[in-house]
Specification:
Precorrin-3B C(17)-methyltransferase; 18 helices; transferase; 563 residues; 5-stranded mixed β-sheet; methyltransferase activity; 25% strand; alpha/beta; 6-stranded mixed β-sheet; 4pyrrol_Mease
Length: 563
């Protein structure tokens, strides 16, 4: 990253940015050396006016696919403007990073970002074809067809027609084609997205040059009609982990090198085993077996081994894995929704959730997001739907309030899940934590959460848990404390705690925490009125050590210096 400065304020801001990006190679240049920065850096931040930067950059501009991304920061550090190379040069991402580091506002004017549409060239996979024409068609609301060889966990795309097989004849409308095959998507305008679907298995004699391995890989892919952009990784036997030619071939292809033990490869059935190879490395196959081992369950060999003088190569296609993100939305306030949750919502092609929770975040979803929403009481249906979509290969976000793992959707979803897709849990601010923050510090020492709903748990079991919490002298947070059909459970639970705690024990209730209509009440165990409490309330009862300090509910941590 190059930092170009002209003033004292610019140099100060550049120093702050350099500290925030200490893990990167950062170089500072004077304005007169901007041309040198252009040659040496992938990213440039100019602490200059936009107009001045435009004039200085004009003679240097070449090709947007190779030019560095440039961001301008004003003298007061109020704005970080993505000026050149928004997508290809990474200026849009750079503007966001710079803004985060300096407390500025990112200014991004590319049409896809401004409209919230996911850029085709920022899916994260290699993209070929007429990106500008297809993107413009999507932005203009024209018919755009999505064609794919398989279902991949894609981000939202505002396509209007889905036609799964790439070979099908379609109208000459713009297309987004997801395929690892050369020649896929010949109609125009077309963008071909290369999914990470191919694994190259490699075997080699000691000293095999990287050039020979790369040539063999190229021929194997070409003869099979497969695109190099879809190669996800190289695989070999573990005794070849340090073979220089294989290591350099992986580096040249820009993919990781994965190794497998010989005894594991020996158990994989391959079409072309070799006793010579078995005697040399302990497995009758390296290239084919390593490719299939790395492709995993459902993988298939699409190019059997081929040999050169010192190397062997085979190609396997892996089965796409869907992705299920289980996202906690927090208590309701937008500023308590985590950035990670927002990122997951924007990368998920499908969002599943309770209708009232979906309404909270609908404006954050990208155009093209498929929303599946339902009402109260359909939790199992939502969990099964999200799992089914992920199993089919989609990118899915299953949303819930608070933290999705606390009395929410994570548990039912994971009960139905299997190992055919990836799962990402996104924590959220729970009702207990939001309520505690409003009350003071009631959770300062050991505590527990108990739901008083007997819809799925018998009251006898709930009562045993409340008695155990009373015996253990834990602070207790009651979820689902009271409803029209359960108007006595809270009183009974408080009565159990009162058997072991004084009437002066603090009790706090927060209703609609961090939402419109929020109420916060602090009382005592002896004087607490249950009538205002409802299903949207959280009730926190102190331990024998809890007390009120300056109107705040506090449970001491018990540090030695407090004694």
């Amino acid at each position: 990253m190059g930092l170009v400065t002209a003033t004292r304020a610019g140099r100060t801001a550049a120093g702050r940015l350099a500290e925030a990006t200490a893990e990167r190679d950062v170089r500072v240049y004077a304005v007169a050396d901007l041309a040198q920065a252009w040659r040496e850096c992938d990213e440039i931040v100019c602490f200059l006016a936009v107009g001045a930067t435009v004039r200085l950059l004009a003679p240097l501009l070449g090709d947007k696919r190779t030019d560095p991304g440039v961001v301008c920061v004003d003298e007061a550090n109020r704005f970080a403007v993505a000026l050149v190379g928004g997508h290809a040069g990474g200026a849009n991402r750079l503007a966001r990073r710079v803004a985060d580091a300096l407390g500025a506002t990112p200014v991004i004017t590319t049409a896809t970002d401004a409209s919230g549409t996911g850029p085709l060239d920022e899916i994260g996979w290699p993209v070929e074809g007429d990106v500008a024409a297809v993107t413009r068609a999507m932005l203009d609301g024209e018919e755009v067809t999505l064609a794919a060889d398989a279902t991949w966990p894609l981000p939202p795309l505002p396509v209007t027609v889905e036609a799964a097989p790439v070979e099908e004849v379609v109208p000459p409308a713009p297309r987004v084609v997801v395929s690892d095959r050369i020649g896929a998507g010949r109609s125009r305008p077309t963008v071909v997205v290369r999914p990470p679907s191919l694994v190259i298995g490699v075997g080699a004699s000691g000293g095999a040059p990287a050039e020979e391995i790369l040539t063999l890989v190229s021929r194997a892919l070409g003869d099979a009609g497969l695109a190099p952009g879809s190669v996800a990784r190289l695989a070999t036997v573990d005794v070849k982990a340090g073979e220089p030619g294989i290591v350099e071939a992986a580096r040249a292809l820009g993919v990781p090198l994965i190794t497998h033990p010989a005894d594991r490869l020996a158990r994989i059935h391959v079409p072309n085993p070799s006793e010579v190879v078995r005697n040399a490395v302990g497995t009758p196959s390296v290239a084919e077996a390593a490719a299939l081992a790395e492709a995993g369950a459902g993988g298939e060999l699409v190019a059997p081994k081929r040999k050169s003088a010192m190397a062997t190569v085979a190609v396997a296609r892996l089965r796409p894995r869907g992705r299920l993100a289980i996202v906690g939305l927090g208590p309701g306030a937008r500023d308590l929704l985590t950035p990670r949750a927002v990122a997951e919502l924007r990368r998920s092609g499908h969002v599943v959730g309770l209708d009232q929770y979906v309404a909270q975040i609908r404006d954050l979803l990208r155009p093209g997001t498929r929303v599946i929403e339902s009402g109260l009481g359909a939790e199992e249906e939502r969990a099964r739907t999200a799992v089914r979509l992920a199993r089919e290969g989609h990118a899915v976000a299953l949303v819930g309030s608070g933290d999705a793992g606390v009395y929410a959707m994570a548990a039912p979803a994971l009960e139905f899940a299997d190992g055919t897709f990836d799962v990402a849990g996104v924590p959220g601010v729970t009702a207990m934590l939001a309520g505690a923050a409003l009350l003071g510090a009631p959770l300062g020492h050991d505590h527990c959460a108990i739901s008083l709903s007997d819809l799925h748990t018998p009251w006898e079991a709930i009562e045993r848990r409340v008695r155990a919490a009373a015996e253990a002298d834990l602070v207790v947070a009651f979820y689902n404390p009271r409803s029209r059909g359960r108007d006595r459970h809270l009183s009974r639970a408080l009565g159990i705690l009162a058997e072991r705690r004084s009437p002066a024990t603090p009790v706090g209730v927060v209703t609609d925490a961090a939402r419109p209509g929020q109420t916060v009440t602090l009382s005592t165990l002896g004087g607490f009125d249950v009538e205002p409490v409802g299903m949207r309330s959280i009730v926190i009862v102190g331990s024998t050590h809890s007390h009120v300090v300056a109107g705040r509910f506090v449970t001491p941590r018990g540090y030695s210096w407090q004694r």
